[in-house]
Each structure stands twice: as structure tokens, then as C-alpha cells.
Amino acid sequence: MNIDKQTLQNIAHLARLEFEEQSEIKMIGEMSKILSWMEKLNEIDTENVQPLIHISQEINVLREDEAKTSLDHEKGLLNAPKRDANYFRVPKVIE
């Protein structure tokens, strides 16, 4: 499959891209190379190949999600250097 200028402009419109004239010519060549490579992959026999779901065979071991009591509001503010009623006081960072 070859990419022509109109097809590239349609794809660019959908992707909200803009190309200069010189870039369009280069992009048409690059996209044509990609599509010809994909056509080459279609020639490969993949009948007995299992689909790849994960890149590695490692299994992520996670702990069980257990409900625990959390830190209450007063204890959370106990060591605050400055506080204002129920909140931490911090220096102003936005002018």
C-alpha cells in the first residue's frame, strides 16, 4: 500500500497535525516504508504461535488488601511544626 499526499493530509487532519511541504514528502516516504514492512509481516506463518500477553514470565506478587485503622486527624497533626486548627501551615509558594 502506498501513501499519497491526500491520504497523508487526511491522516494529519484526524491526528491534528500540520506538515510543511518538505516534511510531507519525507512523511509519505516514512509511512510507505512502515506499511511495506507490515505487509512483509503478513507473509510470516503464525498459525502455531501463541499470542504474547506479557513480555516476561515474572509474576507480580501482591499482598492481600487488608482494611486497617488509619491515623486519625489529631495524631496526623501532632508533630506539625505549624498548624491552623485542622490544617498544616506551610509557606506561600505562589506569588
Notes on the structure:
There is one protein chain. 0% of the residues are buried. The protein is mainly alpha-helical. It is built from 3 helices and 2 strands, in the order αααββ. Strand 1 and strand 2 form a beta hairpin. The chain is 39% helix and 4% strand. The protein has a two-stranded antiparallel ribbon with strand order 1-2. It has a domain at 5-42.
Taking all Cα atoms into account, the compactness measure Rg is: 29 Å
Helix content: 25-40%
Biggest sheet statistics: 2 strands, antiparallel
- Order of strands side by side in the largest beta sheet? 1-2
Summarize the helix and strand pattern as letters.
HHHEE
Number of helices: 3
What's the arrangement of secondary structure elements?
Layout (H helix, E strand, L loop, with lengths): L4 H10 L6 H22 L30 H5 L5 E2 L2 E2 L7
Antiparallel strand pairs: 1-2
